[in-house]
Amino acid sequence: MLSKKIQAIRGMNDLLPEQSPLWQYFEGKVRDLMRRYGYAEIRTPIVEQTALFARSIGEVTDIVEKEMYTFEDRNGDSLTLRPEGTASCVRAAMEHGLLHNQTQRLWYQGPMFRHERPQKGRYRQFHQVGVETFGFEGPDVDAELILLTARLWQELGLMEHVTLELNSLGSLEARAAYRETLVAYFEEHHALLDEDSRRRLTSNPLRILDSKNPDMAAMLDAAPRLMDHLDAESRDHFAALTAILDDAGIDYVINPRLVRGLDYYSRSVFEWTTTALGSQGTVCAGGRYDGLVEQLGGKPTPAVGFAMGIERLILLLETLELMPAAARPSLDLYVLGMGEAASRAALLLGEELRGALPELRLQVHCGGGSFKSQIKKADKSGARLALLLGEDELAEGRVTLKFLREECDQQSLSREALVSALPELLAD
Ligand code: ATP
Ligand code: MG
């Protein structure tokens, strides 16, 4: 009987063993950074009630209109695979009283789901690292988030390859007033608007500013700027943020067309972009969302956060060949035994060495086979040393060490000498 092989869902990727070292390297850097800045990890479910995202992200955003994986649970509830992390974070923080009379610095990591057209740097299951802070009015904490990301780029060797773009969306009131000015401008230039933009004219006109259509570029550049219509408080907030960045020596460009795709932002918004990845150039994006907690039924709570796309950062590290050799995992020692008794002894010797030398990266050959086939496996494993246990060695209480990467004669050692000799042989 022939049956069609089942394949992964389009736009959802397997992470294969050869790719995982780079992911682990990146994730390790992030985890370490968060620890050093005093951010606590939060993990929330991948599935939430659909209403959470509809209410927070906004009904007329791309995400809610056409990108969500929404389905009915067996009992008829509408559930959605999370398309982003902020809404879940806010829900969890409210639900567990984390916002009550206290500040929070949280971070998370995990898969997100959006039904977009898959292409390089754009997938249907992708991964984000995100940070959310609650209870800080800023602009000091806005700056902290930017400094934290800048440090990450520095440590990954990416700093020269990314640009920081900033804008302020002002208060909700200022934005509502600006919206009218903007719509009036677009109506004047209605003939130049593409179909998508005409549709957005009534639903989400600010998003038109974000259009990548080159035919609209000149008209959009000449559009009235939100930056010129800010309320006084937002203007001061933004000026204070840029002053900190200036003092810290962080370069940025002010991009008046940076509006972000999610409805909940107010005041500072920022993106880190790169030109090295083609059109999927935003590697990290975030901003302030002071209204969201209240919108979801909590007490008014200032908040600011960001999310970065792990796939895009991994692509960037690959493109620029920025993974340090030291971060590549490899074995120190491959243990092999010739014949049944020595094979059994090899397995136990492996355990003994792991107990005595906890840092040692060691693999014991499994499955028997000829010396030739075992040494081939040892070589393929990437280990620096092979430890041979044959019948003679077993009888004499000795082992033979063979250097797999260096021009060095093999050595015969007593079992007792092994534990002290190995660290020296593997040094540097
Ligand atoms: P874009 O403009 O690229 O569609 P976005 O504004 O939808 O991004 P956010 O919702 O702010 O993105 O998500 C933050 C980051 O997550 C993005 O900057 C990007 O690095 C990453 N990201 C977003 N959508 C995807 C996707 N479909 N595949 C891979 N990474 C993504
Ligand atoms: Mg998008």
From TrEMBL:
<keyword id="KW-0030">Aminoacyl-tRNA synthetase</keyword>
<keyword id="KW-0963">Cytoplasm</keyword>
<feature type="binding site">
    <location>
        <position position="128"/>
    </location>
    <ligand>
        <name>L-histidine</name>
    </ligand>
</feature>
<protein>
    <recommendedName>
        <fullName>Histidine--tRNA ligase</fullName>
        <ecNumber>6.1.1.21</ecNumber>
    </recommendedName>
</protein>
<keyword id="KW-0547">Nucleotide-binding</keyword>
<dbReference type="GO" id="GO:0005524">
    <property type="term" value="F:ATP binding"/>
</dbReference>
<dbReference type="GO" id="GO:0006427">
    <property type="term" value="P:histidyl-tRNA aminoacylation"/>
</dbReference>
<dbReference type="Pfam" id="PF13393">
    <property type="entry name" value="tRNA-synt_His"/>
</dbReference>
<feature type="binding site">
    <location>
        <position position="132"/>
    </location>
    <ligand>
        <name>L-histidine</name>
    </ligand>
</feature>
<dbReference type="InterPro" id="IPR004516">
    <property type="entry name" value="HisRS/HisZ"/>
</dbReference>
<comment type="subunit">
    <text>Homodimer.</text>
</comment>
<dbReference type="InterPro" id="IPR033656">
    <property type="entry name" value="HisRS_anticodon"/>
</dbReference>
<dbReference type="GO" id="GO:0005737">
    <property type="term" value="C:cytoplasm"/>
</dbReference>
<dbReference type="InterPro" id="IPR036621">
    <property type="entry name" value="Anticodon-bd_dom_sf"/>
</dbReference>
<dbReference type="InterPro" id="IPR045864">
    <property type="entry name" value="aa-tRNA-synth_II/BPL/LPL"/>
</dbReference>
<feature type="binding site">
    <location>
        <begin position="84"/>
        <end position="86"/>
    </location>
    <ligand>
        <name>L-histidine</name>
    </ligand>
</feature>
<dbReference type="InterPro" id="IPR015807">
    <property type="entry name" value="His-tRNA-ligase"/>
</dbReference>
<dbReference type="InterPro" id="IPR041715">
    <property type="entry name" value="HisRS-like_core"/>
</dbReference>
<feature type="binding site">
    <location>
        <position position="260"/>
    </location>
    <ligand>
        <name>L-histidine</name>
    </ligand>
</feature>
<keyword id="KW-0436">Ligase</keyword>
<dbReference type="InterPro" id="IPR006195">
    <property type="entry name" value="aa-tRNA-synth_II"/>
</dbReference>
<dbReference type="Pfam" id="PF03129">
    <property type="entry name" value="HGTP_anticodon"/>
</dbReference>
<comment type="similarity">
    <text>Belongs to the class-II aminoacyl-tRNA synthetase family.</text>
</comment>
<feature type="binding site">
    <location>
        <position position="114"/>
    </location>
    <ligand>
        <name>L-histidine</name>
    </ligand>
</feature>
<feature type="domain" description="Aminoacyl-transfer RNA synthetases class-II family profile">
    <location>
        <begin position="1"/>
        <end position="329"/>
    </location>
</feature>
<dbReference type="GO" id="GO:0004821">
    <property type="term" value="F:histidine-tRNA ligase activity"/>
</dbReference>
<dbReference type="InterPro" id="IPR004154">
    <property type="entry name" value="Anticodon-bd"/>
</dbReference>
<keyword id="KW-0067">ATP-binding</keyword>
<feature type="binding site">
    <location>
        <begin position="264"/>
        <end position="265"/>
    </location>
    <ligand>
        <name>L-histidine</name>
    </ligand>
</feature>
<keyword id="KW-0648">Protein biosynthesis</keyword>
